[in-house]
Amino acid sequence: MLKLTKISKTFQTDKIETIALQDIDLHIKQGEFVSVMGPSGCGKSTLLNIMGLLDEPSDGDIKVNSQAIESYKDKHITHLRNEKIGFIFQSFHLIPDLKVIDNVELPLLYRNVPAKERKRLAIEALEKVGLKPRTGHYPTQLSGGQQQRVAIARAIVGKPELLLADEPTGNLDSRMGDEIMKLLESLHKNDNATIVMVTHDEEMAKRTERTIRVFDGQLVH
Fold first, then answer.
1. Is residue 106 within 8 Å of 156, Cβ to Cβ?
2. Burial of 197 (0-12, 13-18, 19+ CB in 10 A)
3. Which of 122, 180, 218, 220 is the most buried (most CB within 10 A)?
4. Interstrand relation of 59-64 and 17-28 (parallel, antiparallel or unpaired)
5. pLDDT of residue 72 exceeding 70
6. Percent of the chain scored above 90 by pLDDT?
7. Quick one: angle between helices 144-156 and 115-128, nearest 10?
8. Is 6 a residue whose pLDDT tops 80?
């Protein structure tokens, strides 16, 4: 599904050059549940952003479903990211002034999905994460675990082929973190979702099929 070859990423200012990633070779197969671990500042989030086509590598090649990604300025990239990839963030990134159902519908707006169909798909996604009764609530009326469930519903509403989760349990207590992990496991098992999850938690990583470790911008084994 996703193949990274010799991926490097360098951030440069007038005074300093920082190598965030160096010579990353990585292959994510369809239906895998993979965790990415490593110390803070090692390049995990940068790697996830590149995998999600949010950031452009300095060097190397990316293929999504065997299709080479050549130009990040191409509108096709935006279309590919919107239709094929779902994002789950540690800080939820919900819009507080929008009701739960409107937050979940957002990715479908960019696809010009009709309003009636948007609502149907959003309710379906919320039902899948156990929050159908909360459609009319605002994010501030929900617990942290419920907000993360809304964020997951938003990520899956468009039925993406790949879910990228950046510390999805990082802001939650252990009980809520376990609930979110069970939900991801269910999506993987029942929907055959391909999931790549950045985490600091060894116990969470053990629940995935494969763990990738990053240290100083490189994969370690």
1. no
2. buried
3. 122
4. unpaired
5. no
6. 65
7. 130
8. yes
- Tokens of residue 69, six digits: 């990604």
Decide if domain 29-60+71-220 falls under CATH 3.40.50.300: yes
* Token representation of residue 93: 């990134």
The full set of domain ranges for the chain reads 29-60+71-220
Q: What pTM, to 2 d.p., does this model score? A: 0.89
- Terminal-to-terminal C-alpha distance of the chain: 22
Question: Using CA atoms, how far apart are residues 21 and 7, in angstroms rounded to an integer?
Answer: 7
Give the whole-number percent of the chain exceeding pLDDT 70.
99
In a 3-state reduction of DSSP, which class is residue 134?
helix
**Tokens linked to 150:** 């809304």
Whether 96 and 138 have beta carbons less than 8 Å apart is answered as: yes
Residue 7: partners with Cβ closer than 8 Å, 6 or more residues away: 21, 23, 24, 25, 26, 47, 50, 57, 59, 60, 61, 62
Per-residue tokens: 117: 């169909």
Sign of the alpha-carbon torsion through 96, 100, 102, 107: positive
Residue 22 phi/psi, 5-degree rounding, is -145, 120
pLDDT for residue 41 is more than 90: no
Helix (H/G/I), strand (E/B), else coil: 186: helix
Q: What is the dihedral of CA 42, 50, 4, 212, to 10 degrees?
A: 40
d(C-alpha 139, C-alpha 56), whole Å: 32
